[in-house]
User: What shape does this take?
Amino acid sequence: MRFIDEFRRSDLAQKLIARIKQKALSPARFMEFCGGHTVAIFKFGIRQLLPPTIDMLSGPGCPVCVTDNSDLDKAIALAQLPDVIAATFGDMLKVPGSHSSLQKAKAEGADVRIVYSTMDALQIARENPSQSVVFIGIGFETTAPTIAASVLQAGQEKLDNYYVLSLHKLTPPVIKALLDSGEVKLDGIVCPGHVSTIIGSSPWEFVARDYGIACAVSGFEPIDILLSIEMLVSQVEDKAPKVDIAYRRSVRPDGNRRALELMDTVFEPCPARWRGMGLLPDSGLRFRKEFERFDAELAFDIDPGPTYEPKGCICGHILRGVKTPMDCELFAKLCTPEHPVGPCMVSSEGSCSAYYLYGAAYEP
Assistant: This one.
C-alpha cells in the first residue's frame, strides 16, 4: 500500500532505521506489550526493517484476548437472561466462550447491542426503563475511567436499570507476573501508549529498577515505534535501563489525574483471571462498596456452567510470548477470522489476527 511505502521511504524513518542498525551491536529481545503496537509492527513490516540482532515478541496487551473463558461465560450468561440488554464493544461479539458467544446468543434471541462508548449504553438504559442494561466492561486502564464516569452519571440520574460487568484488567501487575515467571528473557519492553496516557510512565519504573529491563512508552504511528526501539537499543547498549517516552504528545510521567481519580472513585484493585496466566493479584478492578449496586455479577443470579478451553488453541501461550501463531496447528486452517477458535484471532488487536491479515512474510 502506498502509505506503507511512503513511511519506509521517509527521511525520518530512514534515519531512525540507520541509527538502530548502527547502535544495535548486542543481541536484544524486546516485547511490545500492546496489541495496537503488534498490529502496527506487522502492518508496516517493522520487523523486516530491524537488524538481525533485535528479536521482537508480542505480549498480552489485547484486553479481549486476555479475558478468561470463565469471565466470557459470565457475560454470555447475563446476555441470555430475560429482560436484559447486553451492551458491548464490537470486538467482544464473536469471541468464543466455553459453550457459546455473544453473537450466537444474539442469533438465538438475546438482546445484544454493539455500542461505541458507555454513553451509548446509558442512553439505551434511559430509553428502556423496564429492562436491565448490562455493559460488558472489558478493557485496561484506558477504558476504565470512562466506565467509571458512566456509573457516576447513572447515579446522578438515578438510573436503576444500569449495570456493569467489571472485567477490567490492570497492566503493570501482568508485566510483573510475566517477568517473575522467567518463561521469556527480555531486554526491553515497548510499554503501552494508550494505557500510559492514563496511568503515566512512572508506573513502569519498577521494570527498569527491579529487573534491569529497558522501557520505552510508544505511540502507535510507525515512526513512534521505531523511535521507541531506538530508545530501547540505546539503553541496552549503554547498560542504563530506564523509562523513556516516545509518545510525549500524549503521555506525562504522572498520567491523567482526572481519569485516575474517576477510576479510583468507583473501583478498587482485586484479583483477576488472565487467559493463559491464571489468577493474578491486584490485576483487576471491582466496584467499591458504595457502588456495588451497579455490579452485574452481584445483581443477577447466573449459572455460566463449566468452563473449558477449546482443544488445540494456544492463545494463552501466545499471550505470554512463549509461542507465536505460526506454532499453532489450528492457525489459518480451523481457526480464521470468519470461524475463530480463540480470541487472538477475533480481536482487531490480537496477534493471530495480525499474523493472518499481514502474513507470515512479516516473520523476521
Notes: The radius of gyration is 21 Å. The mean pLDDT is 95. The domain at 68-168+256-289 is CATH 3.40.50.11740 (Rossmann fold).
